[in-house]
Design a protein that fits this description.
Layout: H1 3-11, H2 19-30, H3 34-52, H4 61-66
Amino acid sequence: MRSKEVLEKALNLDPEERFTPVEGLIKILDEPNKELDEFRAEETEQRLKAYREGNIESISAETTFNCI
């Protein structure tokens, strides 16, 4: 089943029944993911190295948060 179909089915549930799938999805998303954590750590190290070597420039926090 595709995500669009899942969403359509969830929207057809009674409001009090919608809590169960939402809670399940949040629980899954909150679980640690070793593979993702390792990827993020490697990416962070590569970006820090590139910054220190002068290959990339920093962006202010203000600029970053204004993009959201």
